[in-house]
């Protein structure tokens, strides 16, 4: 057991899997000698050698196209896309190939790849270092989408993703790499070491994909969130004093519907929070699922708190970022509704 | 000098000429006389065969020339002659003929409404068959939709192929794919994609993996010349060059991409083999209708890859004699009889002529073989049809929820139930 | 006024705009001499010349990248993507460039491009000639998404799209190019000429983007659909005898929320139908919007009838395609709910 | 012969050698002695200047050579000497120095926390400045983030640039963009994208449009050598070749892409200029630290484009002397003092030396100018800071809902209201 921040936990997951399975390979832009622009792969090339951990040309489509081929050969490639904002050039290989291969080949071939990509804003990255594109991947059948909210989950989920025989997009909310940011950008960031989720086993363990976690039990309203927003929601619940049950989805596809439905049936109210733009974001799917499954239990309209339908504006980061104040307002609204 | 910032001065601009946009055109359109004057056909045997470890820089002439072995009389000439024994050549001839017979029969079957779609490879049989022969059976193939000859040359069951085309009860792809989008793992034949070119970087990745593992198997992939414009072509060449992947990247230049002449793909200013030069990869252009030349060039590239000397790009210069697919009508965009003017002839005819010249074959044998193959295809068809044709459900629709993921997640189980299963 | 099917109406829109505005240019794979694999551009190269209507290399990203540059110059490019299934290689140029340009440049530059792409199944096209990817584009702020359901609308909307100074993705449901397919694949297709929407003015007219149409007024349940599904829904309403109000959305972004809300407030019930896969499809957004805006008027859970979350399986086309029987079941369910 | 189908025979496979994967490495890492032995530096003036209508085929040596005008003593030699008058050169020197002064000052300002981010172009000033000078002011520029010299050479207001960097009340981009992602329409300088390479096919499309309209303006675009691996590089070259677009495509090879050595981008097997060969586009490699050579080569390419002779690819061979950006620390991946060993020197020093040699400049003038520029930048900075720095809201957050579309649709009006405006 060690105290780890999220970067260390991710690094440890990669380390464990490189050590356990000769077929695991790790690559991406600046991933090799340098260890990645966020240092997630630091030290791994030195430890496992240049053919296990290496740099690639700047071609996200090429990275994932070759990853699929390696997966077909029998490897378990773990590719890094430097920022989620740069995953789009690889969209065709993900949507038309990785996601479809098992199906179209009648199960003869598949793409056991893991795609890691730092996502989300709050780091003054401007519109091309802040995006949360998870929604579009959840629409693509055949892909799994995972977003952890803390070091312990990050390691366990990443190990499960690497071991999964289906393609997994693993988004890492970069704002919480060093500590659980709750949206109060004017207060000092608390490091992970102050929180229990930074206690991470050094060795192998996995957290099953497709299972949500109840981050905070409550009875008044169900709050659905993932990634950074889990911490924002916890703060909002705390600050409003509304007894929200905060559910950390962890995996978006496949979704843990049972946990969601059980909670909403109990609370009768639901707030959905994500950082991505609103229209057709994953919050829309969650809202549809909740109303389909809990219609007769709902006592107020489901509320969505999301990024606005604009690019992430550099200077208006905190007006864009869905912080505890906005979540708090939504909590109050559903309680009144 | 001026102390304040000022615009960059430009040299006094001369009166500028208006710009104009160039739009490439094929030499002939419907109603015109076919015109292949743009095809330069060097004599067979004129290019030497370089050692497999020749540096790319020493190989530039191959990117712009045309490697040919069979001359106009059917003689094998020059250093590239692979000196194959007659039995191998007869087998190759047979596989090409079987491919064509299969294609012709399947076209008819589609016309009869027994399947929704078909794609022929007529005129391009040497590409797939000779390349299959030049590779080892455990080398991994990442084809496009026009290399059915690879499967046939590797001895795959025609019945199995037909069952996929019919989407019938024995369709190994469970009715999920458009006809001809084969996937045959046991023949090391990768699942064909409907999206052009995606297999190219995948082949490179497979080859990289083979090299990482100290394996000895290499990969090969195929795209049409039209597809070279897609990003995955560039991805494949970049990654193959950087990591010196043991892969053969083939561009089948059959002059057309549906209705577009190869100039629209960039064939007007450079050959497709020349694309390789910019990546430091050898680019070899070969007469794609010359079985011996295709075989020899592919062997050369395979030997190079196996010796850790990296990738090779091969442009197979050929002609798409048939329509693009059963959805296409080429008379709308090219002269009806154009294929008869194609200067590199027909691959089957040329190999036959060569064998006859060598005294290893005769017109009578050819006719007997054609008849035998036709009968074989008919018999196979009969069997395949007995498992159903278009409209015969391949299996329970229930199966359509399988294989999206390895294990069916709850939402798909629920949707299957919603559908009634 | 002429009788036109949808292809002819689209061709006429292009013809009118090429004639009216020298800055309109039309290009794509097989679009020039040949006139497009669906013949939408037939005759236009001959009429307007090779620099106005021309073939491109097979590179969807290159087509849209150059289109944006032409738009920046001052042209109004209309690009064809041969099948919507092949739009993914152009995803980055659409998402990161066309959609963002006006915003990121403070209004200095913009991309007045129109992207036409035949979409949808029901033509035995298999999984790579049948997709309905509109959902992912509706998540991208800065793009407009349009899907017509008949010749009259197709022409009027396409003209409005071409004249629009923002990027518009114009999906054409190929199954209804020749007639209004209602999902009864075992009955002969009725040609457009038998329907009033085939009466199309020969000249210029426009249908404003962002306005839905009531395809059939009704009082029992609101049915939200677009493209081919409008006809399927009309058939389902007819066949079940349930007095559904069928709304043809026509434009997905910007959405005509007023028309939707007004209808649902009246009927108290809502069925949403699309051909795209369910999870995170545009139906999710519609469901979320309806419940957010009409919560206190809803008498039953909103139902979604959609393509399944699988690729489009060639041999099971009619099990996949959301036909009138499935829509009918949903109508009955919401009436009982 | 066998009458039944059988697998393709393969020539008896010799015992195969295990494959291995090649992973390129830079010649030196932190702690190692810098090693630029891979850089071949031909003598200045050794390459002739071909006519602008020379066919691509006749230009191959330029893709692999290095066009140089200034020799080690600062003399301009050979046919490529553009013979620029001294006043123009002094202006160019001034623009390069101003760019460097601006960069240095902005780095400091970032270190002071007045802005979130900065990117320097140190060592690469000749690229942007000489190219701006070689183009006409109405030619359209599609730059990457490292060509601030283009704007400075075109005389754009430093205050305006600083206001964008500060996202202050006068930021013309309304606080929406990361610092240095300029957009300056009136200088024909296209909006910089954070996504690498996307501007390349856009430049080609702009140039195609110019040609369609019979206009006379050409386009130019820039990417780093690392970015050449992106698909848009391939798109741009393909479309430029097919339509013979009047465009200059520049690859700034500064040896690094963040931490990756240029070999990872494919620079080990071929030059980046050589990429052009495969598309039939002239590829010219130029000493990017030689103002005169950069100017001359760009003029040549511009004249070619203006004469309807099509596109040119220019590789500008240079060295990124500073960190990638303020988020980067190069000492983690390359020798600390590497830049001092760079064999092509410093562009400012070299042009200065040339002017002094011509008797048109002196060390004293140089120092005076440096001081004047420093004062100018400080004064401009003072003005810019008076409009606010990081944290000063550029305008009402209300503006963040504008310009998503030309006209704000209802859902954005609603969201703006939801935010409180
Ligand atoms: C990404 C993508 N874009 C477009 C298409 C449609 N399409 C199918 S085949 C084809 C032409 C391909 O031509 P070429 O690469 O020369 O191969 P050939 O058919 O000649 O063998 C096109 C445009 C597609 N399948 N995938
Ligand atoms: C599509 C995309 N992928 C990755 C990045 C992250 N990134 C920013 S700059 C850079 C390196 C670019 O190197 P190069 O093209 O050589 O330009 P240089 O910085 O040397 O001028 C990378 C990988 C990005 N901005 N966009
Ligand atoms: Mg072709
Ligand atoms: Mg660089």
From TrEMBL, chains A, C:
User: What does this protein do, in the record's words?
Assistant: The branched-chain alpha-keto dehydrogenase complex catalyzes the overall conversion of alpha-keto acids to acyl-CoA and CO(2). It contains multiple copies of three enzymatic components: branched-chain alpha-keto acid decarboxylase (E1), lipoamide acyltransferase (E2) and lipoamide dehydrogenase (E3).
Under what name is this protein listed? 2-oxoisovalerate dehydrogenase subunit beta
Cytoplasm among the record's keywords?
A: no
Stated EC number for the protein is 1.2.4.4
InterPro entries, A to Z:
THDP-binding (IPR029061), Transketo_C/PFOR_II (IPR009014), Transketolase-like_Pyr-bd (IPR005475), Transketolase_C (IPR033248)
Looking up CDD domains in the UniProt record yields: TPP_PYR_E1-PDHc-beta_like
Q: Which residues form the Transketolase-like pyrimidine-binding domain?
A: 4-179
Query: Which GO MF terms does the UniProt record name?
Result: branched-chain 2-oxo acid dehydrogenase activity
Q: What is the lineage of its organism?
A: Bacteria, Pseudomonadati, Pseudomonadota, Gammaproteobacteria, Nevskiales
* CC cofactor: thiamine diphosphate
Species per Swiss-Prot/TrEMBL record: Fontimonas thermophila
Q: Biological process (GO) annotations?
A: branched-chain amino acid catabolic process; response to nutrient
Record keywords, A-Z:
Oxidoreductase, Thiamine pyrophosphate
From TrEMBL, chains B, D:
Chain spans, region Disordered = 1-41
Swiss-Prot/TrEMBL catalytic activity:
N(6)-[(R)-lipoyl]-L-lysyl-[protein] + 3-methyl-2-oxobutanoate + H(+) = N(6)-[(R)-S(8)-2-methylpropanoyldihydrolipoyl]-L-lysyl-[protein] + CO2
Domain named Dehydrogenase E1 component: residues: 94-389
Q: What does the record give as EC number?
A: 1.2.4.4
Q: Top enzyme class of this protein? A: oxidoreductase
Looking at the record, the residues that make up the 2-oxoisovalerate dehydrogenase E1 alpha subunit N-terminal domain are 17-54
GO BP: branched-chain amino acid catabolic process
**UniProt xrefs under Pfam families:** E1_dh, OxoDH_E1alpha_N
| Keyword list, A-Z | Oxidoreductase, Thiamine pyrophosphate
Question: Composition bias, kind Low complexity: at what positions?
Answer: 1-15
Which cofactor names does the annotation list? thiamine diphosphate
Entry's family note: Belongs to the BCKDHA family.
**Protein's job:** The branched-chain alpha-keto dehydrogenase complex catalyzes the overall conversion of alpha-keto acids to acyl-CoA and CO(2). It contains multiple copies of three enzymatic components: branched-chain alpha-keto acid decarboxylase (E1), lipoamide acyltransferase (E2) and lipoamide dehydrogenase (E3).
The name this protein goes by in its record: 2-oxoisovalerate dehydrogenase subunit alpha
Lineage here is: Bacteria, Pseudomonadati, Pseudomonadota, Gammaproteobacteria, Nevskiales
